[in-house]
Amino acid sequence: MSEERILDLRGLKCPLPVMKTRKAMARLAPGARLVVETTDPMAAIDIPHFCNEAGHRLLARDLEAGVGRFVIEKG
């Protein structure tokens, strides 16, 4: 069973959501999951790009009601 944590980054603007996501992912074990919640519209581009570059898997993304929710599995 994999570990899952929630990172609430609502209210932060670019580049802080990606920077804080990177820092949180560094502390997790491979296979652990991080749920990132953010209101920054650029996160819809930045978070998937970060996952691709860092070797993590973006398992799900939900962009409803002004809040982006991304489920990331550490690679």
Structural commentary:
There is one protein chain. This protein is of the alpha+beta class. It has a single domain, classed as TusA-like domain (Translation Initiation Factor IF3, 2-Layer Sandwich), CATH 3.30.110. Helices cover 31% and strands 35% of the residues. The protein has a four-stranded mixed β-sheet with strand order 1-2-4-3, covered by helices on one side. This is Putative Sulfurtransferase TusA-like protein. One of its GO terms (molecular function) is transferase activity.
Q: Given this structure, which CATH class is correct?
A: Alpha Beta
Largest sheet: 4 strands, mixed
Percentage of β-strand residues: 25-35%
CATH architecture: 2-Layer Sandwich
Q: CA-to-CA gap between the ends?
A: 15 Å
The CATH topology label is Translation Initiation Factor IF3
Look at the structure and name the CATH superfamily.
Answer: TusA-like domain
- For the biggest β-sheet, the strand order reads 1-2-4-3
Low-pLDDT runs of 5+ residues are: none
> SSE order, as H and E?
EHEHEE
Q: SS-based structural class? A: alpha+beta
Helix share of residues? 25-40%
Number of helices: 2
| Rg on CA atoms, Å | 11 Å
Average pLDDT value? Answer: 94
The geometry reads as: globular
Total strands: 4
Q: Work out the count of structural domains.
A: 1
